[in-house]
Amino acid sequence: MASLLHESRIALASGLTKIKKSFHGLRARTRRAWWRSKDGWSRLTAGLEIEELWTQFKSEAQESSRLYKQDVSEHEGRREQSWKRPFEIVGTLVWSVLKKLSPARRLFLLLAVILAFLAVVGFHFFIFTEEVEFIAAFAALLILLVLVLGDHISMKRDVEIAREIQRWLVPRRAPDVSGVDIAFVTRPAKTIGGDYFDVFRRATDGPLLIAVADVSGKSVPAAMLMATFQGGLRALGGAGGSLSELAGSLNRQVCANSQNGRFTTAFLAELDPATGNLSYLCAGHNPPILRRDDGTFERLKSDNIPLGIELMEDYKTQITRLEPHDLLVIYTDGVTEARNEDQEEFGDARLVTLLQIAGEERSALTLANIMQKLDEFVGAALQHDDITCLVVRRN
């Protein structure tokens, strides 16, 4: 009897040990699964919170629906008010979606929609049942989605290559020029953009050519025009001649290459690093802000139209002087027209306020402060225009 009781105790202890081990193993597996799920969720969401994801989704949805809204707006402008208007708008929206597909995919989508409709109304033909019709419609839509995603991925890869090429066209760092401290940054709204900047000497020990340009539009068409502008500026900038002659030659080149009324705004300047003399012209561009060492502000304006509008336009230059510790900020309209989630613009006033409190730090620090305040203002809102900013300080 004692032996039987002892064996029972041993069996019970062994069972409890196995249960405890199983429990610890289950807890360990649960922890691993939890951490893996957290890691997978972090990868899926790129570390963004739910609120940030929702804000990003809304911004991207607004951007993606812009083409459809444009088609509907054009249709509304041609039609009078009537009871048919809601149906006409829906028809226009559907056709707007269909015409952006190839004819083959357009037909494929219509067949899938027809199958789904037949399943809903309960109409069956041949051996097709309601379940078969639903499955066929779902499979067709899934195939179409995969094809569209494949096109998107392929196009994105090509655009990434174009982005790398565009990066080669702009300077990666400012030239090392005694007496002048320069910093710059650019952010395209899309993967590639139409903003351009450059800083280089026109000749050995010659004046420093400073250029900031903004091609109308965004994405691939603007980037192509920007590339031709860069090539022309580099070729013509090293050939000598006055700044006015350089602008005239660039204007003729832009006129020859522009399509669909595209133009280019630009600020061009020649700076003598030794004396601080600055010859400049503003071709329809945002007038740069010049903050003097005594705290006063000037705008470098000139009455010139953008490049690419009038073939024989005569571009006039202005002259000023950068004194030691003066600060010059050249930017595109993507800076001051950046909008937050409430559609409020950053504006010139905020930029001027930032420059008022700027000390005598290096240009890179001043530029970093501008971009930080801009990012804080915009928040999670989607960037709608290319952003370029260039800061020049004379030591």
Which helices and strands, and how do they pair?
Elements: H1 2-45, H2 50-64, H3 66-78, H4 85-98, H5 103-121, H6 130-169, E1 180-187, E2 195-201, E3 208-215, H7 219-237, H8 243-257, E4 264-271, E5 277-283, E6 289-291, E7 297-299, E8 318-321, E9 327-331, H9 333-336, H10 347-356, H11 363-378, E10 387-394
Helix pairs in contact: 3-4, 5-6, 7-8
Structure description:
The chain has 395 residues and is of the alpha+beta class. The chain has eleven helices and ten strands. The protein has helices spanning 2-45, 50-64, 66-78, 85-98, 103-121, 130-169, 219-237, 243-257, 333-336, 347-356, 363-378, and strands at 180-187, 195-201, 208-215, 264-271, 277-283, 289-291, 297-299, 318-321, 327-331, 387-394. A five-stranded antiparallel beta sheet has the order 1-10-9-6-7. Strands 2-3-4-5-8 form a five-stranded antiparallel beta sheet, covered by helices on one side.
**Overall strand count:** 10
Poorly predicted regions are: none
The gross shape turns out to be: extended
Q: What's the overall average pLDDT, rounded?
A: 81
Distance between the termini: 101 Å
Helix content: 40-55%
Largest sheet: 5 strands, antiparallel
Count of alpha and pi helical runs: 11
Query: Radius of gyration, rounded?
Result: 31 Å
Strand order of the largest sheet: 1-10-9-6-7
Please report which band the strand proportion falls in: under 5%, 5-15%, 15-25%, 25-35%, 35-45% or over 45%: 15-25%
N-to-C SSE string, H for helix and E for strand: HHHHHHEEEHHEEEEEEHHHE
Structural class: alpha+beta
